[in-house]
């Protein structure tokens, strides 16, 4: 068994690369947050590594590695959210469902066709939290209970009828109604959304229009605030499902605990070009700060795409923008638990993979094929992080 970990203080983020299975066709990355007091958190990425394996074998290898972690290294932890990235949803969703079976845990689950660009058919990101209980609700929603807060993670939520505007409108309205039934609102309690849009160059505009219209009804308007989000290319097995929505909301937060990130020297308001999402959000608890960075690309504070056609320069500007958002939240790249990287052109993978491996050698990350909403954006990234922050006004996580 290979195990490497950086030295760290108890409350800091630890990074591990592990092979916890004799199956050499899988690589596992783990990022650990282990506070001196309070519950721990883990992000994992599980990568298939042998493109020559059959889809069934790759899927079984990734799922077996995940389940081995649940029973071993991550015993005492619960997977509260997981996303499987597959290369061919129509042929692989069934194989994945068969491999997963039931493991006794209620876990919000997303499956999206965003092919891992290492040439394999599947990768997994999962987020684990220590000492919590979960309960499956409806429409892919899972409630995670611990202490004074309930965390609502939403997995795959889709519809088969209508165009992208109609589907997005119904998805958001149904979600808002579900939050209302749980004593929450879209405006106050939803922290994060993801919209995976089939044929994003065609269907993104409809998704944006519907989101703007629904947000109007919930006071998510310019001058107030929006919701941190990623809108990106991706699809399910069913060609009628033009939009997949994933969500995260928290019940029990005060207004003071939720803060939005702008980095105005680097980025403009998304409302300037007709869309509505926040660049980032951080949430303070009594013992830590969580940060969520939206899908971020090579853009300036006027909304212009920078370095059209130059993948390397777009990567560097994207990093600069993300770093500025993190800095505004008093955090940095060392605090990240995971990174998702979206590429429009798979021919850029070798360049981008080398750059990310050099800059983030130990941060769990995956690079997938997923066109960004503007054709001239060659790359986009999103991330999550955690840092110890003491605030006696708030209850711990």
- Rg for CA atoms: 20 Å
Assign the structural class, choosing from mainly alpha, mainly beta, alpha/beta, alpha+beta, or little secondary structure: alpha+beta
N-to-C SSE series? EEEEHEHEEEEEHHEHEEEEEHEHEE
Helix fraction by DSSP (H/I, runs of at least 4): 10-25%
Task: Work out the number of β strands.
Answer: 19
> How much is the average pLDDT?
93
- Overall shape: it is globular
Give an overview of the whole structure.
The structure is a single chain. The protein has about 400 residues and is α+β, with helices and mostly antiparallel strands. The chain has a domain at about 1-135: 60s Ribosomal Protein L30, Chain: A (2-Layer Sandwich). The chain contains 7 helices and 19 strands. The strands form 3 sheets. Strands 1-2-3-4-7-5-6 form a 7-stranded mixed sheet. The radius of gyration is 20 Å and the shape is globular.
State the gist of this model.
The protein is an alpha+beta fold and 397 residues long. The protein is 25% helix and 34% strand.
Q: What is the topological layout?
A:
Layout (H helix, E strand, L loop, with lengths): L1 E4 L7 E7 L6 E8 L7 E8 L6 H17 L5 E10 L2 H12 L7 E6 L8 E9 L2 E4 L4 E6 L2 E9 L6 H18 L4 H4 E8 L2 H18 L10 E6 L9 E9 L6 E4 L18 E5 L3 E9 L14 H18 L7 E8 L5 H11 L5 E5 L9 E10 L9
Parallel strand pairs: 5-6, 11-12, 17-18
Antiparallel strand pairs: 1-2, 2-3, 3-4, 4-7, 5-7, 8-9, 9-10, 10-13, 11-13, 14-15, 15-16, 16-19, 17-19
Helix pairs in contact: 1-2, 3-5
